[in-house]
Amino acid sequence: MNNLIATDESPEAVRLMVRVYAYLLLAGFAFVPAYLIGYLYFFQDPTLIFENHLFHIVAITTATLAGSFVTYVTWRCYQSSGDPLLRWMTLGFLGFVLIYALHGAFTGQAHHNIWLFLLYGPASRLVMSILLLVGLLSYHRPPVAADQRMKARPWLTWIGLFLLVDVAVAYVANSPIASNLAVRLSMEGGALVLSTLTVTILLLRRIRSPLMTIFIISVTAFALSSLAFILARPWNHMWWLAHAIFAGGFFMLSYGVVQAFLTTRSFSKIYSQEELMVRLAEAMAYAESALQELQRTNQELGHLAATDPLTGADNRRRFMERVEVEIGRTKRGGAPFSVLALDLDNFKSINDRFGHQVGDDILKSFVEKCLDSIRPYDGVARVGGEEFMILLPQTSLEGAHEIAERLRSTVANSSFHGQQRSTVVTVSIGVSQSGRDGDTIEAILRTADQRLYHAKHEGRNRVVTTFKTSLQPMP
Ligand SMILES: Nc1nc2c(ncn2[C@@H]2O[C@H](COP(=O)(O)OP(=O)(O)OP(=O)(O)O)[C@@H](O)[C@H]2O)c(=O)[nH]1
């Protein structure tokens, strides 16, 4: 099981270096747009432009459609998990789509009313950066209650607010302050500052889950796209690059949303691989201990199912199974085995004289004496009220007779104590041997029973083997 979970045997220094390298890779990846911005800023003529309205409209329409779809998927995730971050992300995407769409719609106004064309871009990015920041601040808060998630009113209110922003932007674009650089810069700069703040908080809070790593990289892209927009002029390469950087961040974040949708539907409850490995190791350790417990319980149940509850001796079923095993062994050329059939004498009168409880105690003591007289791999079974059987593997009839005689004598010479009174107990025993007395379980047990009956008939307290009796005086 340990092979599945790699226990870390690498030195701490190596682990540290690998971690640092992983962080450098992520940072290097997150800052790819920065290299491109730097390249264009230092090596490209900023007056070079690519003004293609159709291309712009197609690009913004694609972004709007993709954004609408991502908004819907994010909303579904939120409805399912109630993760507060997803609520704010849904609103962020929704606000972005409802405002940014007009940036595409007014492409044709680029030469008539440049601000109506331009201002929807920074406004959409500002709104989205505000909502993502608020979302981050709600990270790891408890899920929103199911009935709250379903309410349509808050969503409609937000849609109304976004449409108000659309109207406000149109108003500003048509007002004299529209051409003031501060208007555009305050929105784009605001988006840059808020996105940078979001990334800083994420890093300071050391949030490391896989989806939040995607979140960090995406918001870094949003911040860098705002920077590129600030450095750009409409239609120049920096301006197009700014669009592309934003689109890259957006698509990456939507990839995170898709991953959430396909797994836990939550951004917060996606674990890093390290966390997953720890959780998996814990779950496997738990499963292993549960399995051991189950095996123990099964063994106990198996033992109980094969045991007589009063005396602890095997029961008849278990005894038969063991005799079958011995028959198999003798058939494969093993030494013969013998069987003793035992019955306590006049047990009814013991019960009558001393009571049933004393009778029970005597039965238990009798089994203990049997166990003391036989080898560990021999077996004692209770097959009736005061009837027992003993299996003696690899034992001839003569050897079995000796053991039976020893046991009979031990029992007859012992005092059985019950309720402070002692009594003498005797036992009659019939002996049979596999091969000599038959090859089947029925034949061998029947012969032992017949000899036991014979022992009773002959006067009890005796061992009968091959119908020769070893007579003992009655006590
Ligand atoms: N105390 C007690 N007595 C039991 C138990 N099972 C059976 N007995 C009793 O064992 C007695 C068996 O009586 P019988 O079959 O007449 O045989 P016996 O009195 O031993 O006489 P012989 O076998 O002919 O020597 C009955 O009185 C049963 O009630 C038990 O679990 N506990």
From TrEMBL:
The chain crosses the membrane at residues 20-42, 54-73, 85-102, 114-134, 155-173, 185-204, 211-232, 238-262. SUPFAM superfamilies: Nucleotide cyclase (SSF55073). Gene3D superfamilies: 3.30.70.270. Residues 335-468 form the GGDEF domain. Signal peptide: none annotated. It holds the Pfam family GGDEF. Keywords: Coiled coil, Membrane, Transmembrane, Transmembrane helix. Its cofactor is Mg(2+). Residues 277-307 form a coiled coil. It catalyses: 2 GTP = 3',3'-c-di-GMP + 2 diphosphate. GO terms for molecular function: diguanylate cyclase activity. Its EC number is 2.7.7.65. It is an enzyme of class 2 (transferase). It is found in: Cell inner membrane. GO terms for cellular component: plasma membrane. PANTHER family: DIGUANYLATE CYCLASE DGCM-RELATED (PTHR45138:SF9), REGULATORY COMPONENTS OF SENSORY TRANSDUCTION SYSTEM (PTHR45138). NCBIfam families: GGDEF. This is diguanylate cyclase. It comes from Pseudomonas jessenii. The lineage of its organism: Bacteria, Pseudomonadati, Pseudomonadota, Gammaproteobacteria, Pseudomonadales.
